[in-house]
Amino acid sequence: MRQHCGVSRHHCPLLLRALALSVSAMLGTVIAFILISGAEALMTGQGLGLFGAVWNPAAGKFGILPMIQATLLLAFSSLGLGWCLSLGCCCVLNGLAPRWAARWLRGLLTLMTAVPTVVYGFAAVFLLVPPIRDALGGTGFCWLTAGLLLALQGVPAMTFIMDGAVRSIAAESRLTATALGMTTAQHLSRVVLPLASRPLLSAAILGLGRAVGDALLPTMLAGNAIRFAHTPLDSMRTLTAHISLVLSSDIGGGEHLSLLLAGALLLTFCAVFSLLSRRMARRVRS
Predict the structure, then answer these.
(1) In this prediction, what percent of the chain has a pLDDT beyond 70?
(2) Distance between CA atoms of 42 and 268, rounded to whole angstroms?
(3) Most buried residue, 18, 105, 202, 261, by most Cβ within 10 Å?
């Protein structure tokens, strides 16, 4: 038994290293393929014209700049709303509401995590699009509709990330806060939330990554018009929606080159957001 345990302990780190190396190699291969494909799209055919503002396949123009704008606008707007809602839900779960309300909210958020994205989109087509169309005008399939649903979809994940950190910090500091005569709201606002700034930032980065990478809700609700959006009622097409729509109908030509560049840009956006979050987290920690 001792010899067997010794052999296991000896080979386990080697096995883990091999698994880690193989996974890293696979991810590196995928990332390299996407980036090389994007560079190839720029060097082949359209070149920097792919960053143009006009999408007109009949005229040979395949500019994806409106889709880049749509992706960033939709991601940051939905993050702003979703992060604020998540912070409010986190505070409710940690003492700003009666226990029965907190239990009800936690159950609702858990249920929301199990709902497929297509159900959100399908429900919004019948429950959200008509009121927006009747009250504000337009078609209802617009930046506002897609942003509201993206924000709602990201709330459960961001809330649970915040809640885990806030609950741990609150448990460690509750006795001291009680001794100082702090109320629950004062404890959360003056002690817990400032100490939980790094998890709050991590939740925001997660929400931003989900908003940038989601394809189904923008495809179903944003209208898919390839143009610059100036108001929340304007239709738009994001990079992810563009990839899903073009892949289903075209596999060659300028459209195909725009797909390669769109994939490389999405990967670049996610990498930049991740690096910025780490840099900000280090500053907060220091």
Answers:
(1) 88
(2) 15
(3) 261
Assigned token pair, 55: 């999408």
Question: Which residue in 284, 87, 94, 86 sits closest to 170, CA to CA?
Answer: 94
**Residue 272, both tokens:** 């930049």
Q: In the structure, what pLDDT confidence band is assigned to residue 7 with cuts at 50, 70 and 90?
A: very low
Residue 146, C-beta contacts closer than 8 angstroms, at least 6 positions apart: 74, 78, 217, 218, 221, 222, 236
Beta-carbon count within 10 A of 194 CB: 12
Q: How does residue 254 score in pLDDT terms, banded at 50, 70 and 90?
A: low
At residue 281 the predicted structure's pLDDT band, cuts being 50, 70 and 90, is low
**Structural domain boundaries in the chain:** 2-43, 51-285
Two tokens, residue 170 = 């609150």
pTM score of the predicted model: 0.81
Distance between CA atoms of residues 63 and 48, nearest Å:
9
Q: Indicate the class that CATH gives domain 51-285.
A: mainly alpha
